[in-house]
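Researcher: I've got a protein sequence and the SMILES for flavin mononucleotide. Could you write out the 3D structure of the bound complex as structure tokens? I'd like something to compare against our soaking experiments later this week.
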Amino acid sequence: MPHVVGDLQLISDINRSRIVISTNAGAKKMLRMIYASIALRKTKDVDIERIVSFSAMFNVDNDITGVLAFDGMRIVQILEGPDDVVSDLFGRIAADRRHEGVVELVNQRIDGHTLDRWGMVRRPISDVLLAVERLR
Ligand SMILES: Cc1cc2nc3c(=O)[nH]c(=O)nc-3n(C[C@H](O)[C@H](O)[C@H](O)COP(=O)(O)O)c2cc1C
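Model: Sure. Here is the predicted complex with flavin mononucleotide in place.
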């Protein structure tokens, strides 16, 4: 009889751990960060295009969605994804020598992605600013 109780205990532990895993998955902490910056004079359109295509790969692999605008001088970028990944990425972006004067505009918890599921897309700055207004 005791070993039956033991088996039951084991089964209920397995079930409990299954439930915990799915609960954590559903409650994954998500973050939205929006910043503005100024591209260095030597940073050209082609450099930004390269950043966007490189970023698309990294971002898709890491469950990050993003939109970036560049008007020849100013940059505005929206990033959404898992808390720790977005924070780490923002640290790398802020330290990137291709732009300067990075100003954090938004840093907020979100329940899930609101941007289209591309890893990174480029949009006109007017569209991105409108999206920033809506998201704030
Ligand atoms: C304006 C701007 C936006 C960037 N956005 C992203 C991005 O969304 N995802 C990404 O992986 N890298 C992005 N990067 C590139 C990162 O700054 C960095 O070069 C990249 O994460 C590789 O980092 P590492 O050289 O430390 O490995 C961006 C760079 C700039 C200048």
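Model: The chain has one domain: 28-135. The pocket of flavin mononucleotide is lined by residues 51, 55, 58-59, 66, 68, 75, 77, 89, 92-93, 96, 98-99, 120 (CB under 6 Å).
Researcher: Great, I'll pass this along to the crystallography team.
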